[in-house]
Amino acid sequence: MPNVTRADVAQAVRNPLAYIAERWTPSPRILQRAILASLVMNVVIVVTGGAVRLSGSGLGCPTWPKCTDDSLTATAEMGFHGVIEFGNRMLAYVLCAAVGWAIIAARSTKPHRRGVTRLGWLQFWLVMANAVLGGIVVLVGLNPYTVASHFLLSTTLITVATVMWQRAREGDGAPRPLVGKSVRQLVWFLTVAAGLLVAVGTVVTGAGPHAGDSSEVHRIPLNWEDVSKLHAVLAWVVVSLTFALWFVLKAVDAPPGPLRRTRDLFLILLAQGVIGYVQYFTDLPEVLVGAHMLGSCLVWIAIVRVVLALRERPELELSVPAQGEAQLTSAR
Fold first, then answer.
1. Planar angle of CA 231, 222, 239, nearest 5 degrees
2. In angstroms, what CA-CA distances link 232 with 196, 219, 279, 318, 332?
3. Is-contact 123 133, C-beta < 8 A?
4. Residue 64: DSSP 8-state
5. b/e for 266-297, b at 16 or more Cβ within 10 A?
6. With contact defined as beta carbons under 8 Å apart, do 221 and 265 qualify?
7. What is the DSSP letter of 68?
8. pLDDT tens digits, residue range 254-288?
9. How far apart are CA 166 and CA 181, in angstroms?
């Protein structure tokens, strides 16, 4: 058993991350798995949040931060809906644990990778902000505008987690572009179109029939079928831009990384399109709506990975003095 002194205990209390970092160095694989776990949990909590709405359990716990005015947890009288809503709230703690593990692993890496660690802390504060926003969603009775904001903030979280995952798999050197300026501009057009696609998707949700609760819940005063058609048009724009990007990358003989990421995005978009059309023509069955929410997360992750594949970051080169220079310094 290691000899733990009073000074060690004081240091651990004062700065636990530094204390752990002095005694543990994770391998690159452990760091990547820790960050991947946070990314997966970010997607899981979006899908389970959708399950809360699709099962009509949005107000299963009618208040926040407690489940009821008198109980922190769901009670037997609240039934199935209370269990679903409270279970989703508990997953927020699992997400916090995953993000915390990612932060600890990034902080303990030798040499310390400050950029990766900062992305972990950004995830943490976004999780806290989204938890508060989720509470506001409950307190305002599932107002569709707050529900949409909740989903968009989750998408921001997924973006940060994806960037952090990529950063853990590359060096800390200055980024070097792998494609020309015109290709990068095309990708940014694609990214903006995909962002509009996701945003309009939240409007479809807010105007559509799945309100998230068995009682009457305010909906966005738009014809959801018209908004769905706009959503479909944007989806075709994104698919077309993705195909154009793949064609351009082939034409300019781009490196395999951007080509693979573009191919992955195209395949995910096709699968998401099939789910979208099937759910539209089958009156929005809950299972397919949930699958479409999962697909939305995967599409956005693929978009971010395409953007990140356009450059490479080599290992940071440390300046080492030449042998003669070192001897001269020693002589002084």
1. 5
2. 11, 21, 12, 50, 73
3. no
4. S
5. bebbeebbebbeebbeeebeeebbbbbbbbbb
6. no
7. S
8. 999 999 999 999 999 999 999 999 988 888 888 99
9. 22
